Amino acid sequence: MYIPCAVHRKKVHVVSGAQAWAVMMAPVRFELVEVMRDIAPCSVGELADAVDRPADSIYPHLRQLVRIGVVVEAGSRASRTRPGKVYDLVADDFRPGFQRVGARAKATAIDRTMQGLTRIVSSTSRKAAAAGRFSYDEDFRNVVAKLEQAWLTPRELAAVRSRLQSLKRYLDARKGRRAGELYLAAFFVMPVVRKRGARAARA
Description:
Blueprint (H helix, E strand, L loop, with lengths): L1 E3 L5 E6 L2 H7 L2 H13 L2 E2 H8 L3 H13 L3 E7 L6 E6 L1 E6 L6 H28 L23 H19 L31
Helix pairs in contact: 1-5, 2-3, 2-5, 3-4
């Protein structure tokens, strides 16, 4: 039997501290958050099954997410031995909102975010390759990989961001169902810094 408590997910939760954001964006914890967006409210056992990790390894990360206010207890669920806690996210999505943080600290937090996401992509790719799950035949390709560089004005960058947000909404609408195959999509857009050759042409 599931005994819920009152948890109302907000649309967006702003994580106001750079340190708290870094805690959430550690690869394992961010993977937990992303999976919980799909299956929560859920037990630790369900979460462990979803990320393919031992339940004991989940608890320390879950406690950190509770500590920074990203995850909350959402009731309990009866099991064979005793009621087990059920957890949920406080919001459907999360945004950084650093306050009283210098430019260098913000840049470091963003870089850690990018590095954490890259490690998740690398781990997912390695596991898919080891399992022989990649298909790149003419009739069916289940992997897309592109690396593009382009000069963009602020307006053009906003257009790119809008199109990625549209794709995110499309993927979000397909959470919570079990049809087809589970895929990971990652988007990266960032400025390129080079000592030479990365300056805009003079007007």
